[in-house]
Amino acid sequence: MKAKRRVILVTDGDEYAARAIEYTAKRVGGRVISRSQGNPTALSGQQIVELILQTPHDPVFVMFDDCGFAGEGAGETALKYVAANENIEVLGAIAVASKSNLKEWTKVDVSVDRYGTLTEYGVDKYGVSDIEVGRINGDTVYCLDELDIPVVVGIGDVGKMARKDSVKRGCPVTLNAVEIILERSGYNG
């Protein structure tokens, strides 16, 4: 029997997120499905799974984005398909906050603010602690509660957060979120 591919889901797919995720994946020895980048997600869940299964090693990072569409958009449809696939083991998800007028939200186990501090509160798009305990608002996040994801880490806008998460600075917030997922999921790649 073939081993399941171990995957980290990221609920953002713009160019800043792609650069930050690619940088972070290299730092932890992972791989990125670069073609999953898009705003909104252009590939179907089935296409993404096919690409995941072709990667040479774990963990595999996959980006999903709804581009602010109301309800379930392309990113969430693909995310749900990938997470439910029998060949995939989801290690965790990075739930990215956005300035969504739609008020879609999800529960998070922990958040990382723009200074790298762990907090029980959610964070906003800028990585600033919010007033809600254990939840964040975003546009590609509401379906995370429906899925069996062992660790959900909330962060602000990947690769941005007032430049505190830029590639030039080593994407410390994104890297911290990934390290939390790898540690709490029991991954020992």
Report on the structure:
Helix 1 packs across helix 4 (172-185) and helix 2 (45-54) packs across helix 3. It is globular and about 45 Å long. The protein has a seven-stranded mixed sheet with strand order 2-3-1-4-11-6-7, sandwiched between helices. A two-stranded antiparallel ribbon has the order 5-10. A two-stranded antiparallel ribbon has the order 8-9. The chain starts with a strand and ends with a helix. A hairpin with a 5-residue loop joins strand 8 and strand 9. By secondary structure, the chain is of the alpha/beta class. The chain has helices at 15-28, 45-54, 74-84, 172-185, and strands at 5-10, 31-32, 60-63, 88-96, 105-107, 110-112, 118-119, 121-123, 129-133, 135-137, 152-155. The model has no long low-confidence stretch (mean pLDDT 92).
Features:
two-stranded antiparallel ribbon, 189 residues, alpha/beta
Give the CA-CA distance, first to last residue.
19 Å
How many strand elements?
11
Regions with little confidence, pLDDT below 50 for 5+ residues: none
Q: What string gives the helices and strands in order?
A: EHEHEHEEEEEEEEH
The largest β sheet comes out as: 7 strands, mixed
Helix content: 25-40%
Overall 3D form: globular
Write out the strand line-up for the largest beta sheet, numbering strands in chain order: 2-3-1-4-11-6-7
Counting DSSP H or I runs of 4 or more residues, the number of helices is 4
Mean pLDDT: 92
Structural class: alpha/beta
Amount of beta strand: 15-25%
Please compute the radius of gyration using only Cα atoms.
15 Å
